[in-house]
Amino acid sequence: MFGRSVGAWVAGVLALVLIVGVPAGDAAPPGVRLADMPAGKTQSNVDVELVLAVDVSYSMDPEEQVLQRDGYREALVSPDFLNALKQGMHGRIAVTYVEWAGASDQRVIVPWHLVDGAASAQAVADEIGRQYLRRAARTSISGAILYSAGLFDRSGFRGIRRVIDISGDGTNNQGQLVDIARDAVVAKGITINGLPIMLKRPAFNSVDIEDLDIYYEDCVIGGPGAFVVPIREREKLKEAIRTKLVLEIAGRTPQARVVPASAQQPRISCTIGERMWQQRWGGRGHDDFN
89 vs 29, 122, 126, 159, 222, CA distance in Å? Predict the structure, then answer.
């Protein structure tokens, strides 16, 4: 879909941010969390408040979950990420890591942390790694979007940008319609980016689709500079995650990205997941898939 490789994107982004970079402001203590801060106190400004919202539904097999989690851990401490971090106006971001599945299943795995350099980035990566892996029923991208949006009000930080980073391997099949949830969150000035994971062909008995990247482009992402980084090969998953984080921190987008146009007719119906679920399971209450 994109004319340039993931690695080329990173190189281009870093070249741009190194040219326009601004010296970092005063650093706050590394590893600051909202839970560690006095009630009512607002922390220093940051370049971006970033919610990493990752899919743990049953369609994500254990190997994919490990790759996904390790990808975020390695990306946070990578030289590319740390170099992009330093070029921001403040030289620091706030980040939280959320796992999601069904409409009522969202969990903060790592609460808001300040990341301002290698030590604080390593602290977040280590905390992600300490959490146990879990899987849960159904796929509610809309639930993840709405839940993630609510976290900004309690971040304790003031970001120049607010971004929700959604990664997943299926369509919305429970909860609010995904495009309605997206539009409501984008109206608040929040950007939603996506990492559609397409490592397996949809099984005959699943409710997954072939063109998940197009679904994400037309139904999931939105807001200023929104983009999708699709991944189709396991060996490139970690590289794709690193690329997405670098782009988000730098406030850049892939040059060949497809611009979402919510006012136009989506190429794939935004209710395809709900309809496939209904056609397959009807009212039989099977919640042990996707």
Answer: 17, 21, 26, 11, 24
